[in-house]
Each structure stands twice: as structure tokens, then as C-alpha cells.
């Protein structure tokens, strides 16, 4: 079971990665839907016919993931956090929407940019517990997030309702990780 790092009292427990050198950055995974990307922004762009046809299963609308926008403050947070973390996107794509897989890649390229091959840092999985890293930021403990090996920060919980607040928490967690890995 993952350690919930949303609460400051839990930030001192980590599973030590044996491959981390002092000069390495801890690995941070960020979920896309309703964490980095505003899912509702895609729904808001659907036609009335699409709204009716796909009611209750909007994630199956072809192309919906290409219509979405970033969560408020995410790009600033990403640019700040990439200095201290090795960042990857860990997202789940719906099985019944084949365009979702490529749309998520396009979304990263267009909304975040690809100057640093950011799109090559997209991992699509229904089993986030299989990822090896230090921290996962996700809006819900599903698809393996609840069993992620080290720590889970739940976006939208315990006062972590903005990327500014999440970034502040992740900076503190990074300091704890660095101290832990250095043996101090």
C-alpha cells in the first residue's frame, strides 16, 4: 500500500531506491486527467449531439483528450518542479477510446511543449503500482495509484487544491527525499 504524502505528517517515510545517486533527481509521476489536464475543459467543448450520445462516458468520445486544457497553474508548477524532479506522466487511457492514447501524447506536446522530449515521458498504464519512482501525484487512488511503491500525493485532497499548494508540498517532500537518500 502506498504511503499517502498528502498529509505533512507522512512525508518522512520512503522506500529507498538503490539506484539513486546523490546527483540524481527523485522521480515524480504526474497523472494527467484532472491532475495536470482539466478533463472538464474537454467536456465543455463537446457538441450537444456528443453530449447526448456519450452521456456518463465522456472519456469514450473520440478526440476528447485533444480538446482539453491544462489545470490552472500546472505549467508554472511543471517548470519549477522539473528543476528538482525527474518528471514523467503516468496516465490511464480508456480501452474503448483508441484515439485517447494518441491524443494524450499530442496533448503533452501541444500544451506543455516538447523541447526536452517531454512527450517521451508519457507512460500509459492501468497499473501505476508497477512504476518505479519516488512520488505519484494523482487525483484519485485508482488504477494502482493506491498501491504505488513510495508515496502518493492526492491532488485535491487535504488542502492540496491548487498546483501552487501541491508544488509547495512536493518541494518539502523533495528535501526529505534528498536527505533520506544521502543518508543524513
From TrEMBL:
It comes from the Bacteria. It holds the Pfam family NT5C. One of its GO terms (biological process) is deoxyribonucleotide catabolic process. One of its GO terms (molecular function) is 5'-nucleotidase activity. InterPro entries: 5'(3')-deoxyribonucleotidase, HAD-like_sf, HAD_sf. Belongs to the 5'(3')-deoxyribonucleotidase family. This is Uncharacterized protein. It comes from Photobacterium kishitanii.
